[in-house]
Design a protein that fits this description.
heterodimer, A: alpha/beta, five-stranded parallel beta sheet, B: mainly alpha
């Protein structure tokens, strides 16, 4: 019956993006249903990452499923969803022959409402005996923990649990928060217990559902008729929002978070065109509209401190823009916050391409923001992989654009993230050196690079896991790991987790390389090998693998074996083995296998690299 | 799109059937996609499409095309 399923013309990516943008602009049930049906047969082709996603809920989840699939596509995830039977969350997790167990999910969403598992806390709070609500919560936490532990024995899937929402109208009215028996505080404590439970388990994460409900308005989050009649605790007008919320928590696990924000300047960072209005004439300051631009810049600075790389692409004279930075004290963003600035009259797509090349980052990790609909359309057409955000007409709405742009979110923020801006700034100085050097060895020597290698270094756990999730280009296997996964490798007798930090005379680059090695008697095997693209092209990867080979040889191994699983993104890795002297071994399906004979292998580092062992 | 077309388009999209099959004799007994959950979706989609809150006494009622039309008529919408 479905005309689109038999459509002879497959839907292309630009067309699919247009349909998704239509739904996003007007996420009615009809639009969601129509487009979900249209795109369903093409999902695998339209998204870079496929994910088997299980949804277990204490409420009716079915109406959210089409929205979930579409939100997945918007983020580059082809979701194959499994909905557990209504209200059987614990059974599904525990039973080794459950539908969930058979489905073998990559990730599990646990949509369990405290209203459903501890109804008395919501429906009859004022009648509960003292201490009773704590008992009910303890009991539920105990059950949840047991169920999750049982599941964890069989599956390493990411588990995402939603936290518990406070009612729009707490049981004791205006007295509630101050009361010793406060319903809102009781639920807040249940949330604390949930976060503690998740922290004590492997790869279990909490999503702030309470925050989601609050953002959209507690009183209108539900439609009481569908809530009572069909146990759907979300009004149809919010299906799109809850689906987006779930996907936004999944995205960081699959390397789909954005990393770079490229900003226009005129009418974006300040009001007016500086070339016409002059440095003193642009809107920036305490009063509207200048204060909206200041607030917008503050939100962008927040992103900078979370590790998002900022760049400027402006059609202006460079000297004019520099004057704004120097002469307008209201500027929150300083030139040092920008990894690179391209201020010229070239088309913006060209500038974006050059920025991507300078930073060694894929354009699919870029967000472009501009007030001009024309520039946005141009970038959208020329570079569909970039997420282009057109700013709204009124600057008062600008800060909200950043706040609601959740594509940059990561589950953890590491020290590297907080300092990334400085790393890139130093990189720009290095590039200057490169331009003045006569040849490459002279450039490398001028850098004064010092590598430090760490073996099974526990303080690097978070950064190591993060690199597996962020690195797409110089990555042999693109295996994504949680901190627990890395920790297991560290503890394993026959595995070593080797991290690499790099310093040079321009500054500290932080932890930029990771190898997981399995040591055998005759051969060592590179199980994972990746480098941050920030330091590629400086012979560090060559020195790193050479150092590992030396360790293998010293332990009596004759060979270093490695693999390469090509993806559309890790082409920079493809030539690496051959350059080092590895030879092809019989491939395993799509995965190439390589072996380095350590007798006579050239493993010593270039003379410009000093290696220290921590 | 007039109201009658909009009505057929909404019902057809939610139930996954061509719009020209949305006739008065369409009923849960004749379309397998018209189950209780999709009935809720029908009501919600009509409310969103026509910008009204339908005066249902019981969401489970009105499971026929003439009854849905009658619900809309209470809000002055003739389809």
């Amino acid at each position: 019956m479905d005309p689109s399923a038999t459509s002879p013309v497959p839907i292309g990516l630009p067309e699919a993006k247009e349909l998704l943008a239509e739904v996003h602009a007007e996420p009615t049930l009809v639009n969601i249903t129509r487009v979900a049906r249209q795109l369903a047969p093409h999902r695998q082709r339209l998204a870079g990452v496929s994910l088997r996603l299980a949804c277990l809920a204490s409420f009716t989840f079915d109406p959210i499923q089409p929205a979930l699939e579409l939100q997945g596509l918007r983020s580059g995830l082809a979701l194959e969803t499994y909905l557990g039977p209504f209200g059987q969350v614990e059974q599904e997790l525990i039973d080794p022959s459950s539908g969930l167990a058979t489905f073998k999910p990559g990730a599990v969403l646990l949509g369990v409402r405290l209203q459903d598992v501890c109804p008395a806390i919501y429906d009859a709070f004022n009648t509960l005996a003292p201490g009773r609500s704590e008992q009910l919560i303890d009991d539920w936490m105990h059950r949840l923990r047991s169920a999750l532990l049982a599941f964890r024995q069989r599956s390493g899937a990411h588990v995402l649990v939603q936290n518990y929402d406070v009612p729009a109208f707490p049981a004791l009215g205006i007295a509630d928060r101050a009361a010793s028996t406060s319903q809102a505080s009781t639920i807040a404590r249940a949330n604390d217990a949930l976060y503690a439970l998740a922290a004590s388990m492997e790869n279990v994460h909490v999503m702030d559902y309470d925050g989601l409900v609050a953002r959209h308005g507690r009183a209108s989050w539900q439609d009481p008729r569908t809530a009572f009649f069909a146990r759907i605790p979300v009004a149809p007008s919010h299906y799109w929002h809850i689906a987006g919320f779930y996907v936004h928590h999944l995205r960081p696990f699959y390397g789909l978070a954005k990393k770079v924000l490229v900003l226009d300047a005129d009418n974006t960072l300040w009001g007016g065109v500086v070339g016409d209005a002059g440095v003193e004439g642009i809107a920036l300051g305490q009063d509207y509209p200048g204060n909206a631009y200041v607030a917008f810049q503050q939100r962008i600075l927040d992103l900078y401190h979370r590790g998002i790389t900022l760049c400027l692409a402006s059609k202006n004279e460079p000297a004019t823009v520099e004057e704004v930075f120097r002469q307008r004290p209201e500027m929150v963003l300083q030139s040092e916050h920008f990894a690179t600035m391209r201020i010229n009259w070239d088309p913006k797509p060209d500038n974006l391409r050059r920025i991507a090349a300078d930073l060694n980052l894929g354009l699919d990790s870029f967000v472009f923001m501009d007030d001009s609909a024309v520039e946005c359309a141009l970038v959208r057409t020329a570079l569909p992989e970039v997420l282009t955000v057109a700013l709204p007409p009124d600057p008062a709405d600008y800060p909200r654009v950043i706040e609601s742009l959740n594509c940059f979110d990561q589950w953890t923020i590491s020290d590297e993230d907080r300092q990334r801006g400085k790393f890139y700034k130093a990189e720009a100085v290095r590039s200057g050196l490169k331009a003045s050097a006569v040849d490459m060895p002279m450039f490398y020597r001028g850098l004064g690079m010092r590598m430090t290698v760490y073996v099974d270094h526990v303080p690097h756990l978070a950064r190591a896991a993060q690199m597996t999730n962020r690195t797409n280009q110089f990555n042999m296997h693109t295996i994504r790991c949680s901190e627990d996964d890395v920790s297991r490798f560290m503890e394993a007798e026959d595995h070593r987790v080797i991290t690499l930090a790099l310093e040079d005379r321009f500054g500290d680059n932080g932890v930029v390389g990771l190898a997981v090695v399995r040591s055998g008697r005759d051969a060592w095997v590179l199980h994972m090998f990746l480098m941050s693209c920030r330091v590629l092209g400086r012979t560090v990867e060559q020195a790193f693998v050479g150092w590992i080979a030396d360790q293998a040889a010293a332990a009596g191994a004759q060979r270093l074996a490695a693999e390469f699983a090509p993806t559309p993104k890790n082409k920079p890795f493809a030539v690496f083995y051959e350059d080092r002297g590895f030879v092809h071994a019989p491939a395993k399906g799509e995965t190439q296998r390589w072996v380095w004979d350590l007798a006579g292998a050239e493993t010593s580092p270039p003379d410009w690299l000093e290696i220290k062992v921590h | 799109m007039d109201n009658a077309e909009k009505f057929r388009s909404i019902i057809g999209t939610i139930l996954g059937i061509p719009e020209d099959q949305v006739t008065d004799d369409l009923a849960p007994e004749t379309v397998d996609t018209w189950d209780s959950l999709n009935h809720i979706n029908l009501i919600s989609a009509l409310e969103q499409g026509f910008g009204v809150r339908l005066a249902t006494e019981n969401l489970a009622d009105s499971q026929s095309i003439p009854e849905l039309k009658a619900l809309l008529a209470k809000d002055g919408i003739v389809v």
